[in-house]
């Protein structure tokens, strides 16, 4: 087995919220996220309707202990996660080529690969994990469906004046969610989804001005705010591949799906892709055969498409000025608050695993 690609950036300060199922999957690889000094637990998830609309939902809290868990997951900087993955890779017999693909030629019996240094390889199965602009996906002839939202997301880490108490808080606004996620100590990560013109204004601000804007937007929930990392802005986009696999090529991660940063779906979906692919090829003499890849595509299509629909519906319900849609959103959150079995079922579904109460 060969891995082609440069190691992740250890200085990447953006964070990933790894949900419980992903924590278990990484533990099976020898990566213990809960014991990592850079990771913080997410024991409570709170939703606050911060819109100024006529129909507003009541605040709601989801507690991990309701479904028998110590935490829903753990939030960790991408650089620290990349280092942990690289260390785990070094302990395997997987060959790692720190380069880039320059060419991909799918065939009936094998796939030809050309590296940027000119080296040529062949493979029975190629796993495309090369991101939203995947050249491997393009070579396989797999088309995508794309939707661009009128939103931009800001990611930045913060120093905070009050203890977050291991609560992840998502404020719903008319322009999108504003989500504060715990980091160790008095620190938190922020993903703020907003209109593009608002993002342009924030990008021009000094750190002190941006910290004040974040403090106001968060209603001073975490006290005094200070900026603790570089800022990252990116346009909100949804991309879905029309197929998960074709011609001895299987797609995982952003080569297969790109979602807005709502509900911590991105990397957690990627790990479920990898798990399903491992199951589909296990015990097969030819892992790139059509039956193996068909099994993989069937296993992943519903999960990815249903979660895309969920994220899209939630995002559109915030952007929409239609009173009936606002009412349905408020009614749904009210039901989750009041009906315990429904709330617990939704929490289990969000974690993509069955947890006994």
UniProtKB/TrEMBL annotation:
Q: Which GO terms describe its molecular function?
A: oxidoreductase activity
Which top EC class applies here?
A: oxidoreductase
Q: What is its EC number?
A: 1.14.13.-
Q: Which UniProt keywords apply?
A: FAD, Flavoprotein, Monooxygenase, Oxidoreductase
Q: Which coenzymes or cofactors are required? A: FAD
Q: In which pathway does it act?
A: Cofactor biosynthesis; ubiquinone biosynthesis
**Is this entry keyworded Transmembrane?**
no
* Database matches in InterPro entries: FAD-bd (IPR002938), FAD/NAD-bd_sf (IPR036188), UbiH/COQ6 (IPR010971), UbiH/COQ6_monooxygenase (IPR051205)
Q: Which PANTHER family match?
A: UBIQUINONE BIOSYNTHESIS MONOOXYGENASE COQ6, MITOCHONDRIAL
Sequence similarity: Belongs to the UbiH/COQ6 family.
Which protein is depicted? Answer: 2-octaprenyl-6-methoxyphenol hydroxylase
Q: What species was this sequence derived from?
A: Labrys monachus
Give the classification, highest ranks.
Bacteria, Pseudomonadati, Pseudomonadota, Alphaproteobacteria, Hyphomicrobiales
